Amino acid sequence: MNNPEEFVERASRFLKQQRELYGDFSVRLEEEVKEAEKTEEAHEPEVAFESDAEHSSPKPESTELEVETKVELTPAQRIAKCATLDELRALCEQDEKLRTDLEGTNLVFGVGNANANLMIIGEAPGQNEDQQGEPFVGQAGQMLDKIMEAINFKREDIYITNILKHRPPDNRDPKAEESQRSLPYLLRQIELVDPKLILCVGRISATILLNKDTTLKNLRQKFHPFHGRELMATYHPAALLRNKQWKRPAWEDVQMLRKRYDELMKEG
Predict the structure, then answer these.
(1) Which residues contact 194 (CB under 8 A, 6 or more apart)?
(2) What is the pLDDT of residues 56-91, one digit of tens each?
(3) Do 95 and 166 form a contact (C-beta atoms < 8 A)?
(4) Crossing angle of the two packed helices 176-193 and 85-94, in degrees rounded to 10
(5) Apex CA 52: angle with CA 46 and CA 54, to 5°?
(6) pLDDT exceeds cutoff 80 at 100
């Protein structure tokens, strides 16, 4: 088509027909379309996946300080926490309050069968016991061994200890405050050994455990209830060395002890 005017006229008629059919519209050139697409892409919001956000943006640090709280146990709680005699012994080693006013003494904890059904308790260690760290090893200890052998007990069958864990000066009696400081350890010691019978040798150990201010005569020849167990009192072996007239009643006491021991064993 060589006539430009005729081309324009035909194009105008075509556009008019298209408007009548499809409504008004405008024609966009190819360059304009591409430019519009670029503009739309530029304004399209960027979507970040959760996994990408975790790696790209660090989590805010906590403003709260994590403080480890260390609870200090009371002396009673530390004693109760001891599950073995070895643990209790180690705790006794650390407690300076168990010491008497005699300097340089050794701990005399206890000796014998850790599962014994018979436990013997004296009042305090003496010089020989302090030196060897074991209760009843001097002359009084030898006397105790003879008494036990007479009723068919070997030293390894029983458990032996004292109220005090350290030697007092001049072998004096335990002071009331010393006994009170030692008692919680002794009671835990009794619980761990768990004997059926306790034999207190001497008035002092018996009155301290039973919390009674009375004579040995009033305590002997009977079994006293004590924390679910039975407790008996007799003369201290050291007293028998000084007073031979007491050996006969002491023998009667331990015979009674042996009989009760056998009864308890049968009962289970």
Answers:
(1) 115
(2) 455 555 444 455 567 899 999 999 999 999 999 999
(3) no
(4) 160
(5) 125
(6) yes
Rounded to 10 degrees, what is the CA torsion of 167, 169, 170, 174?
A: -70
What type of residue sits at position 157? Answer: D
Q: What is the pLDDT of residue 71?
A: 82
DSSP state of 265: H
| CA-wise closest residue to 141 among 232, 205, 235, 237 | 237
Q: Which of 55-64, 105-114, 182-191 has the lowest mean pLDDT?
A: 55-64
Check if the beta carbon of residue 114 is closer than 8 Å to that of residue 127.
Answer: no
Joined tokens for residue 217: 């005569």
Q: Which residue has the tokens 């072996």?
A: 237
- Strands, sheet with 118-122, edge to edge from the N-terminal-most edge strand: 111-112, 159-162, 118-122, 197-201, 229-234, 224-226
Q: CA 195 to CA 230: how far, in whole Å? A: 9
* DSSP of 33-87: HHHHHHHHHHHSPPP--HHHHHHHSPPPPPSS------PPPPHHHHHHH--SHHH
Phi/psi of residue 200, each to 5°? -90, 125
Q: Global pTM?
A: 0.74
The label of the residue with tokens 């408007």 reads 19
